[in-house]
Amino acid sequence: MTDAGFFVRSYGPLPREDRPAVLLVHGLGLSGRYFTPLAHRLAASGATVVVPDLPGNVRSRTAARRAPDVGQLADALAGLQRGLFSGPSLVVANSVGCQVAAALAARHPHLVSRLVLIGPALEPRVPAWRQFARLVADAPHEPLGLLFLAAFDYLVTGPLRCAASFRHSLRDAAESFEVNLSQVRAPTLVVRGAGDTIASGTWTRRVAGLVADGHAKDVAGAAHAAHYSAPDTMAALIGKFTVGETG
Which pTM was predicted? Predict the structure, then answer.
């Protein structure tokens, strides 16, 4: 379905006022398709799950003439949420999507009840070439199906838009990411796949420490996209976190 220029995937029952919906936010150049395994599991537990393609990406590519920056993506997500839900959402993000989620929680705090950041990237003060090298190093640790999916999505989004989005994200990492994290008041769970070469353990613990109420958790047997390679574990973690358990 489409909504306010977004292509949106929906899973589970219709939203209810007594239960926050779950919003899944993908990484740079991708679509929301790689959240499908996790979305199905969350929906099976009774959650309303919404997975948009962010403006400028894959099936929402024509929603933006140019690659939006991180703040513009956060504001666009806020508009989408207001149109779909009556209350705040549990926001789950991966990779550079964590920068968008942090900006959303900082700029529109009333729209975020809880925040789950999976493999937050990009890490401030790390040169662009090293960030790219970390991405390349992560590939052998991910399932083959994810690599094919990601390659297709990057081609549809287009190399020029991916490059522009990367530049926007690097600027946000250098100037705004940590500031936004320090303004997040929603309880936050920071998850890192134990084999993640992109988001270091030191950095993910720092992310958890920057937010007002942050908790860090490692997932064994997973890399950067823990929600794809370990969806059952991630669904269980999110379910516990939703009711206030962080262990």
Answer: 0.95
- Contact by Cβ (8 Å): 28, 165: yes
Domains and CATH numbers, the chain: 2-242 (3.40.50.1820)
Helices (H), the chain: 36-44, 70-84, 97-107, 128-138, 144-157, 159-175, 177-182, 201-210, 226-229, 231-242
- Give pLDDT tens digits for 143-195: 999 999 999 999 999 999 999 999 999 999 999 999 999 999 999 999 999 99
CA distance 242 to 113: 9
Angle between helices 70-84 and 97-107 (to 10 degrees): 70
Order of strands, sheet of 2-3, starting from the edge strand that comes earlier in the sequence: 2-3, 6-11, 49-53, 21-25, 89-94, 112-118, 188-193, 214-219
